[in-house]
Each structure stands twice: as structure tokens, then as C-alpha cells.
Specification:
The protein contains 29 helices and 29 strands. It is an alpha/beta fold. It has a four-stranded antiparallel sheet with strand order 6-5-14-16. Helix 20 packs parallel to helix 22, helix 20 packs across helix 24 and helix 24 runs parallel beside helix 26. The two termini are 61 Å apart. The mean pLDDT is 92.
Length: 913
């Protein structure tokens, strides 16, 4: 026996404990990956949050899920790497910096690109680490020594390599096509960065006169201002109403420009009037029609959303103001037919938060067909990657099949500048659509190439645009490991094992990664894609900035602790991919569900304190494994060990199949119920008794199961388990629970029949306790109890658990019998299984006084029933009160009626009726 070990403090303090272990893990590089580790590799890449971001509940949820997987597999002996990092977030950072410049009375053009980028990097150093520091508060077990940034030197090298390779293969090209233009950020955005919002708008009907004076056609549009750039009106060639008009000319109102009527099967005869205006430079469908019919392309809009000189009298107007002005003029000219209320979808820029404007622009594109085809081949031939849940496989496939060429250039300065250099001396010192260019790794290489073509006097300029951030993020799974260099990390940890991400970026990110990886590595970048749902607010609504219904995870961490928040988020997961709901009181900033998890951690803390106070200074290692001498085990010892190993088995099966919520619930039920509420109570008498052998077995079992619980629970609540484990095991100061072996099930000690039998014993104790409470028997009073069953097996089980029943239910005289010749008078009865539980009340309870008390309670309940029934029988109340108030009254009535019936049953029992 050693000297008494330090015990845990009486109160668990999450804040200090969590900060201590977060610092310990990082300072001791507990999570630093080693490519030479003998275990099978297990690698997860963090979905890189924007460098501009701050921790929100989605980050907390996703990080908690990933951390459970990573800690679990690390403890299972796998060679584990969770690599952290952030995305440079071109548009978001640029927006911040330009706002700062405006506050100083400047623009980015005034400060110049070089100074602007200096400010950007300075901002990144000063403010860009907010999100990673907040992630540390979650206790994530990432390898901070390998932290990456999408614009660090290594990733920039990978981006350059990928761009040049794709360009040389003819998969990156420069062309003039219609793009989604964001007037707020004044940059092109991809189709995937466009959010379709349903809005309540209008459908305006206008008359366009036929040039020969023979009449007019009526068109309907949701964007009247674009009519200034119309170059045709289209009808369906099979529409009998308009067949005869195809080929005739119209005079475009306001602009007085003649435009043709064309026939095109794209036109839906049932939409509006069946005549649609065609603005090839401002609508993607019109663009296609313009190409088919060789129509002029007239751009009427500037990049800031204002109208240009092609808009005639409306040049200089903002697009929204122009809409009103155009409608007013058409109305004044008698050409406005009607205006209809019209609900439709409008594309918004995900970053700029304004409606996008389809514009024709010269941009850089990636040819997508060969990339998406290769990803589809992996999916169809190898089911790679595997989606969990599987329903997302079809969504992923459908998107790969529908993808169009990817616009990868952005009119920004913060980001990876496109590695193309133009011979501007050949086009008047400006970059034009036809300016010759070369793609190169450096300005020096580009200069040499262009001098060969155009002579020593050539003047060159690098393309001012930067690449879409998703281009660098698409390389993330392998660029972070050193690609294009063949590093030890790349050969060990790639392909990665699991991607954990939300369904909302399957198209933004997942598809980009699989296409890039398939092309550059000929492998899918991850084996599994675990798609999680959203964290919804207390009203089950999606959290968003626009709705203002977000819940700050840091606030809940301050109030309840990191472990409590993590455990709540994981435990709420019902199935893979399902949304979860977080209870929250906005008035008090309290969460009942997180508080319940805090109560769970307190329960574990107090149980651990009790165990350690009763180990006489011995550690689990000194006490040994109780299962090694099974013959010494008593009934409850065998039961708890069987329950423990079944819990080990169920937890591992759940985590291995991404059932993290199921695993959390399994652990909760075992720890709170089986271990704390039952086993500890069952062995207290042995710990205080004179039988040294029995006491030692109880100590062995308590210590062994408690340490096992800490290991099982560690991936879910890492801080409190690390703290308890160090105190329990007296581990060396540099040791960590995080790298201990995860428990394995021992089939030799798993006994389902014993567990089932023991439930009868527990049920009998619980039933006797409930009967005592019903009739107000004092807690310390010893009573008689009768357990009656016709089953020999049940009676045998009860006899084996007789001492437990007597001890925990405070039964002085216990009778276990098949039948009674005569049931005692004045008893209260209950049932567990097929066992009838009888508690004689004579000499224990004042029956008359108890009956009087119950009758008084019944009188109050009946009065309440009468009052509520009266309200519900009043037609005015039912008809005029809010539905939720009426339903609340009905629920209250049902509850009161049920309580009344319970009281009547008790009175009948006590009176022997």
C-alpha cells in the first residue's frame, strides 16, 4: 500500500482545468504526428475556416465530431494526424481592408497593390488568428506544428504547380463568357457561390411595337431595366399565336432600335405572354439564344452595378433606380400593360449579399468535363469516396454530372495572383482580350519567354486578377502534406481517411477536392465523407447572421465548460447527417441541455472522488484487473464488468460506423445509471465492512471500471477525463490519457443472461423505493417487503440478490415466495416483470393520516379539473383564445385527470377496496 494519493477537489472547475490541459497538450506536442509510428495511418484535414472568421456553433459542432473520431482512433493505436489550417478568404479579407481604407478616406487604387497587400498581411498577423485561438478553447487534438494557411509558401507553390500543369494540358483557358458578377465586391463569382433566394417581386408586362405599324407584341419580365440591352424578342416556333411573326422587326421602346422576332424552342409558351425579351449580354439563357441566332451582345451595365453609355438616357443610374425610371417612362409612353405580384428566385452573391448581375467578361476557366468524369469513375467503379449517410452519394453524383466550366479568376488583389504575363506593348500598353500572354512560374521566366517572341523591348504586365479561393482549397488534402514534393507526410497520410463536413459545401469544396485529387494524384483524397447536419436554435430554425439567432459557443463554454458543450452537441446527434436542436434561453443565456451535460460531468467527478477516497491510496495498476481472478468476484462485480465490456463493444461499434450520438448516449446511460447509481451504492457496505478480501475485490473493480470509463469517455470530454485520470493513476507528469490504449471488450466476462437477471434485482429495488415514496415512509425506516413470483427462475434470481434488495431498499424482513395463502391487509403493491411487490404498511404508516392527506390532494386536483373543464366548455374561450393557449388548457386537463386517477388508486389500495 502506498501513501494516500491526492484526491480531487470537492468542486470541479472547468475553466481552470480545461485551460491547464489545453496548454499541456500543446506544450508537450501530445498530438504531433509521426510518419514512422507503427500504427495504420488515420488522417483528417480540418475544413479550413476563413481567416476572417470567429467561432460559431457550426465550428464547435464540427470540431467536436472530428475530435471524437481523431482521439478515438489515436487511442486505438492508429498513426493519427489531424491537420489544422485556415483559408485566406479573398473576398472577405478584401472587404475588411477596403472598408478600413474608406474610413481613412482612401481607395485601394490610391494606395496601390503593393501597399494594399502589405496591409493585408499585417491584418492577417494581427487579427487572422482569432479563429484558431478559439478552436484551441474546444480542446481539439490537432497537430499545431503542422498548421497551414492557403497562402503560405508551401501551398502557394502547390497552387502554382497545379495552375501551370492544367494550363499546359489545355484544361485552363482564358475566354470571354458570361459570368456571375458581384457588384458589391466587383468580382466574378462561381455558380457555387451564388445563393438562390425566393423573393416577392413583380412581373411587368410591356408592349413592343411592330416596326411596320401592324400592331405589337407583349413581353413579360422581372428585370425591366435590362430591356435597354434587348437585341431580339423570342417566341416558341410551335406556338400558333406567334408563328406568323417570326422574322418580323420590332422597334425597341426608349432606345428606338429595331430588333427581330426569332423562334427558339427554349421559350416556354406558358410563361407570361409566350413572348420573351432577349438580352444576350445580361442573362445566361439569353446568352445561349444570342449565340444560336447570331444576335448582337450589348452590355448596358458597369461593374459597380450602374448603367453605362449603352443605356441611353439612363446612363449613370444605379440598376435599382434605373428599374423604376424605365417602368415610369414606358408607362408614360402607354406601353405598360400591367404589373403582377410575382414570387420568384433571385441569385445573390454569397459573399457580397447583393443580387448578382450576369455579365460578359474575359475570365480564366477550368475545363471541367475530364476532371468530373474521372471523379465519377472513382465513384461508380470503386464507390470512392464513400458518403455517410449514403443518400448524399446521389447528390454528389448529380452535381458532378451537371458541372459547367469553372470560372477561377477573381477581380481582387488578396489571393494567389494568376501566373500569366501579358506583352502589353503589343496592345497599346493595356491588357486587352487579344493581348499575347504566357503562363510561367515567375516574372523572370515570363520575361524570357516574351522576349523570345517580341524582342528585348517588350513590355510585360502580370494578370492583376487572383484565383478563386476554392482553387487552393481544392488542393488542400494533398498540398498540406507537401505536394507537389513527395514528402514523408504525403506518402504516409495520403489519401486521408475521413472528411467531416456539412452538406452545404459538398459542391463548393468536396467536389473540387475529388476532381483535383483525381487529376493530380490519381486517388480520391479521402476514403469516407461524413456529412453532418446543422445546429438549429431553440425554435428548430437554422442559425444565421441575417436572422440574428446565432448562439455563441464561447458564452456557453464560459458558463458550463468546453466538455459540457461538446458532449451536448455530440449526444444530440440522432443519426448521421441529421440536424440537431440546441436548447437556449436568450433572456438568461442559459441552456438546459448543456446544463444537463455539466451535471453529468459533475456526477462523474463526484463518483471519481468517492472511488479514490475508498482505494486506500492504491492505483488501478496496483490493485490489478479484477477479471483475472473471476472466482473472487461477487454477483454485482460480475454484473458491472459485463455491463462495462458490453458498453465498450457498443461504443466502439457506434464510433466505427459514425454513430457518435449513439456512442455518447450509451456511455451516459452506463456511467450515470449502472456505475454511479447502482454499482457504487451496491459496494458501499463492502468498502466499510470487515471482510478484507471482499473489500479488495470491490476496490479492484471500482478502480478498473473507473479508469476504463475515463478512457471510453475521453474522446467526448477530454479535459475532465484527463484531470481525473492523472489523479487516479498517479501518472507521470508528462503522461497523457490521450495516448493510452482504448478499452477492448473481453468476451469471457460478458454475460447477457446475468445482465438480464440483474435487471430484475434492480427493478425490485426501484419498485420498493417508489412504493416507500408514494406512502411517505421515512428514508431511514426499515420495512417488510414481499416479492411474489410463480417463476422458479425469478425467485432464484431474487434470492441471489437478496442482500442487495435489503440493503438498498431498506428492507428488514424480505419474503420471496411463489404465492401467499392470504395477502396482508393494508399493503401497497407494485409490479416488476412478473413479480408482484408488496409492502405491508401496518406499524409503518399512519393509514388514516395518509388517506386524509391523499384526499386533500385529490380535492385540489378535482377542483382544478372542474375549473379547466369549465373553461374548455366555454365556446367563446375555445373560439377566441390563441390555439396554443387552448391546447395548453387541454394538456393541463389531461395531466390533472391522470393525477386524480393515480390518487384514487392509492386510496383504494390503502382502504383495501
Amino acid at each position: 500500500m502506498t501513501s494516500t494519493i491526492p484526491n480531487l477537489p470537492s468542486q470541479y472547475e472547468p475553466k481552470t482545468t480545461e485551460a491547464k490541459w489545453q496548454a499541456f497538450w500543446e506544450e508537450n506536442q501530445v498530438f504531433k504526428a509521426d510518419p514512422n509510428h507503427p500504427g495504420e495511418p488515420y488522417c483528417i484535414m480540418i475544413p479550413p475556416p476563413n481567416v476572417t472568421g470567429s467561432l460559431h456553433m457550426g465550428h464547435a459542432f464540427e470540431s467536436a465530431l472530428i475530435d471524437v473520431l481523431v482521439r478515438y482512433h489515436r487511442m486505438k493505436g492508429r498513426n493519427t494526424l489531424w491537420l489544422p489550417g485556415t483559408d485566406h478568404a479573398s473576398i472577405a479579407v478584401q472587404t475588411i481592408l477596403e472598408r478600413q481604407l474608406r474610413e481613412d478616406g482612401k481607395t485601394r487604387d490610391q494606395v496601390g497593390r503593393e501597399k494594399f497587400l502589405e496591409r493585408a498581411w499585417q491584418w492577417k498577423e494581427e487579427s487572422g488568428n482569432t479563429i484558431t485561438n478559439q478552436l484551441r478553447r474546444l480542446g481539439v487534438s490537432v497537430d499545431w506544428t503542422r498548421e497551414r494557411f492557403t497562402m503560405d509558401e508551401g501551398l502557394s507553390k502547390a497552387v502554382l504547380e497545379a495552375f501551370i500543369a492544367l494550363h499546359e494540358e489545355g484544361l485552363i483557358y482564358r475566354g470571354k463568357y458570361m459570368v456571375n458578377w458581384c457588384p458589391a465586391s466587383q468580382s466574378a463569382v462561381s455558380d457555387l457561390e451564388v445563393e438562390q433566394r425566393e423573393v416577392n417581386g413583380h412581373l411587368w408586362h410591356f408592349r413592343y411595337p411592330l416596326s411596320d405599324g401592324s400592331g405589337f407584341v407583349e413581353v413579360a419580365t422581372t428585370r425591366p431595366e435590362t430591356m435597354l440591352g434587348d437585341t431580339a424578342v423570342a417566341v416558341n416556333p410551335n406556338d400558333d399565336r406567334y408563328k406568323g411573326l417570326i422574322g418580323k422587326m420590332l422597334t425597341l421602346p426608349i432606345m428606338n432600335r429595331e430588333i427581330p422576332i426569332v423562334g427558339d424552342e427554349f421559350v416556354d409558351p406558358s410563361f407570361g405572354t409566350g413572348c420573351v425579351k432577349v438580352t444576350p449580354a445580361h442573362d445566361p439563357n439569353d446568352f445561349e439564344m444570342g449565340m444560336r441566332h447570331n444576335l448582337p451582345f450589348i452590355t448596358i451595365m458597369n461593374k459597380d452595378g450602374s448603367l453605362n453609355e449603352n443605356a441611353g438616357p439612363f446612363a449613370g443610374h444605379d440598376r435599382q433606380d434605373a428599374r423604376k425610371a424605365v417602368v415610369q417612362q414606358l408607362e408614360a409612353e402607354g406601353l405598360l400593360v400591367k404589373v403582377e405580384e410575382y414570387k420568384h428566385t433571385v441569385p445573390y452573391s454569397d459573399r457580397g449579399k447583393v443580387p448578382v448581375e450576369p455579365l460578359i467578361s474575359t475570365q480564366w476557366f477550368v475545363k471541367i468535363d475530364s476532371l468530373s468524369s474521372r471523379a465519377l469513375t472513382f465513384l461508380d467503379e470503386q464507390n470512392s469516396p464513400r458518403f455517410v449517410p449514403d443518400r448524399w452519394t446521389k447528390v454528389y453524383r448529380d452535381w458532378l454530372e451537371k458541372l459547367k466550366d469553372w470560372c477561377i479568376s477573381r477581380q481582387l488583389w488578396w489571393g494567389h495572383q494568376i501566373p500569366a504575363w501579358y506583352a502589353i506593348s503589343e496592345t497599346g500598353g493595356m491588357i486587352a482580350d487579344d493581348t499575347p500572354f504566357v503562363v510561367a512560374k515567375s516574372a523572370e521566366e515570363a520575361t524570357a519567354k516574351l522576349k523570345e517572341q517580341f524582342g528585348e523591348a517588350v513590355q510585360i504586365q502580370q494578370d492583376p486578377d487572383v484565383l478563386d479561393t476554392w482553387f487552393s482549397s481544392g488542393l488542400w488534402p494533398f498540398s498540406t502534406l507537401g505536394w507537389p514534393d513527395q514528402t514523408e507526410d504525403l506518402s504516409t497520410y495520403y489519401p486521408t481517411t475521413t472528411l467531416v463536413t456539412g452538406f452545404d459545401i459538398i459542391f463548393f469544396w468536396v467536389a473540387r477536392m475529388t476532381m483535383m485529387a483525381g487529376h493530380f494524384t490519381e486517388k480520391m483524397p479521402f476514403k469516407d465523407v461524413y456529412i453532418h447536419g446543422l445546429v438549429r436554435d431553440e425554435n428548430n430554425k437554422k442559425m444565421s447572421k441575417s436572422s440574428g439567432n446565432g448562439i455563441d459557443p464561447l458564452l456557453l463554454i464560459e458558463k458550463y465548460g468546453t466538455d459540457s458543450l461538446r458532449y451536448t452537441l455530440i449526444r444530440e446527434v440522432v443519426g448521421a447527417g441529421q440536424d440537431i436542436r440546441l436548447e437556449y434561453n436568450r433572456t438568461t443565456d442559459e441552456s438546459a441541455s448543456v446544463e444537463a451535460s455539466r451535471n453529468f460531468t459533475n456526477k462523474l467527478w463526484n463518483a471519481a472522488r468517492f472511488v479514490m477516497m475508498n482505494l486506500e491510496g492504491q492505483t488501478p495498476q496496483q490493485l490489478g484487473n479484477p477479471g483475472e481472478n473471476a472466482s473472487n468476484l461477487e454477483l454485482c462485480d460480475r454484473w458491472i464488468l459485463s455491463r462495462y465490456y458490453h458498453t465498450v463493444q457498443q461504443t466502439c461499434e457506434a464510433v466505427d460506423t459514425y454513430g457518435l450520438g449513439d456512442a455518447a448516449k450509451t456511455l451516459y446511460e452506463f456511467i450515470w445509471g449502472d456505475f454511479c447509481d447502482w454499482y457504487i451504492e451496491l459496494v458501499k457496505s463492502r468498502l466499510q465492512g470487515e471482510n478484507a478480501a471482499s473489500r479488495r475485490v470491490a476496490q479492484q473493480t471500482l478502480a478498473f471500471v473507473l479508469e476504463g470509463i475515463l478512457k471510453l469517455l475521453h474522446p467526448f470530454v477530454p479535459h475532465i477525463t484527463e484531470e481525473i485520470w492523472h489523479t487516479l493513476t498517479q501518472a507521470e507528469s508528462t503522461a497523457s490519457l490521450a495516448v493510452q490504449s482504448y478499452p477492448e471488450a473481453d468476451a469471457n466476462l460478458m454475460d447477457s443472461d446475468l445482465e438480464s437477471d440483474f435487471q430484475l434485482i434492480i427493478g425490485s429495488i426501484r419498485t420498493i423505493r417508489n412504493l416507500r415514496a408514494e406512502v411517505d415512509i421515512k428514508p431511514g425506516a426499515k420495512i417488510k417487503a414481499i416479492l411474489q413470483s410463480d417463476s422458479d427462475k425469478e425467485r432464484d434470481i431474487l434470492h441471489r440478490g437478496e442482500s442487495y434488495i435489503q440493503g438498498l431498499a431498506k428492507v428488514e424482513d424480505l419474503t420471496i415466495t411463489p404465492a401467499l395463502a392470504e395477502e396482508p391487509e393494508q399493503t401497497i403493491a407494485g409490479v416488476v416483470g412478473t413479480v408482484q411487490v408488496l409492502v405491508p404498511l401496518a406499524g409503518v404508516v399512519d393509514i388514516e393520516q395518509l388517506c386524509a392527506k391523499l384526499e386533500k390532494s385529490l380535492g385540489k386536483i378535482e377542483g382544478e379539473v372542474k375549473s379547466i373543464s369549465g373553461r374548455l366548455s366555454n365556446a367563446k374561450f375555445v373560439d377566441k383564445a390563441p390555439p396554443e393557449v387552448v391546447q395548453g388548457a387541454r394538456d393541463s386537463l389531461a395531466e390533472a385527470e391522470k393525477q386524480g386517477e393515480i390518487l384514487r388508486d392509492r386510496l383504494r389500495q390503502l382502504r383495501g377496496e
